[in-house]
Amino acid sequence: MLSTFDGAHAFLFTAGITADSTLNGKFYSGNHSLEPFTAKRNPSFKLTDANTLTFLKEGYEGFGFAFPDSEGTIISADDAAFTDKVVIVQIMGTWCPNCLDESKFLVEYLKQNPSPDIAVVALAFEYAKTEEQAFKGINRLRDRLGINYPILLAQYGSSDKTKASEKLPMLNTVLSYPTTVFIDKQGKVRKISTGFNGPATGQKYLDFKEEFITFVNSLLSE
Predict the structure, then answer these.
(1) Residues 212/113, Cβ–Cβ less than 8 Å
(2) pTM value?
């Protein structure tokens, strides 16, 4: 048996193991979904590099966006606030536990590494059924964490990744929340990281922090 609760999702796996190390079991997602599964040992399996899963489609050279903030102002990738700066775009949702962890990290990073040459912006994809409810959740998160970078409402009424991909057509897919886009001072996308390893992942989180700081510093020095 294996169970987990990450703040939004309750999962349970139950299985029996056979002589050849095959697992036959059932996967429960909350109290609304039940799926059988079979798992076979693969000693050579490795997770795909998180920096290769999401990428710009052929024909696109940059990452564009234009969405409203809580004041109703449309903020665009072409705005002066992002010109000649290293830009970090956080594709997220206020309902997403990993996005919460990443937001905490970004807030702390900006406090410890203040620089006029860095700009962070979040694009929120919200479950809330109305725009008003979506911005209420956004403002609550911003106030709770002390977020001082803009959080724009990219979508409300659904966090469906297919619909999210339609809002960001330059990406091959939106595979995970959060997804983080790193843009250099010339406006070129230099890296897209899918997912986030939060503090509970131990060494993976420490490795992520070191990689993040090193990579951003390299962009700033260019």
Answers:
(1) no
(2) 0.86
